Amino acid sequence: MLAAAAALFFWQDTAERSQRALREADQITAEVAKVCADLRLDPMDAPGHPAKIEADPNEYGVDPGPTFIVNESTSYKLTFLQANGFLTKYANNQLFNRLYESHSPAFEKPSAPKWTKDQAIQVGNAFVNALAPQIKIQLGEGSARFDQRQSNGTYQVGYWMIDWPRIDSKGHPFSDDGIIMEIPEGYGPLFVHIKQETLFNEERSESMQMSEALKRARSKITNDQSWDKLKSIFPGHISDGWTDPNPTNAYLEIVTPRIRKNAVARLAWVFWFKQHDFHAHYPVSLWIDAYTGRWIGGDVVGLDTPD
After folding, report:
1. Average pLDDT over residues 147-167
2. I need a surface site. Which of 45, 64, 86, 122 has the fewest CB within 10 A?
3. In this predicted model, what pLDDT tens digit does every residue of 161-173 receive, in sequence order?
4. In the 8-state DSSP scheme, what is residue 107?
């Protein structure tokens, strides 16, 4: 009896959340279309009906978890997390088909971008604002790059890839979370990917200096036994050592330790070290917790038992 009641409650709750996802999809596509109209961009297709929804149980436990997938006509596909209703993906399939599939525009030479980077970011910001109700994280400044797909020796319509990292209150970026948006020049967004589920508890104390964290990192990379194990993990890609113990790059970033399942993200010093053999083109990273000084991951996560 109790099991039947629980199953009924779960079904009703799931049904209610699926209907909410449908309403959210309608609102999102309408807001995106409005921004396209305001900026005189071609959305390629208006939101279509009837909308169809399917539940993805995510049987293999791959992030981000069970989702609802909303298909509006043949044009838009939106994906929402079942757990909290957050939008994770937006795709304009009709736009992709017309620009990059059969009978798509083609050019013999690469095209020069019509927008500057700043203009592309401004256009992207307008769409981020349209998605604001779905965004529960603080975002840093956007960055943009222009690119073109190639097909059968020709170039297709150029697009801008724009990225906004998630940041903490001090401006430190997350390695995994943020927004990535692809916008073909003159059109609305083709794809939007939102990642904002990383668990994080921000420390109030000051993080350690890079010099102190580097001492901890060097103690790992100078361990001969650990180095031999690293070479066995990446056969053919790891040389016999480093050119010197100085990293080629170092920065603070919020990372999720790879050493435990469902680990809470930590602010870490991320160090990149060059290998001794110049033929080895694979720099190796190592993460040091910026508050505890413990080694918490990176490419060397398999070396030994983490601190």
Report:
1. 92
2. 122
3. 999 999 999 999 9
4. B
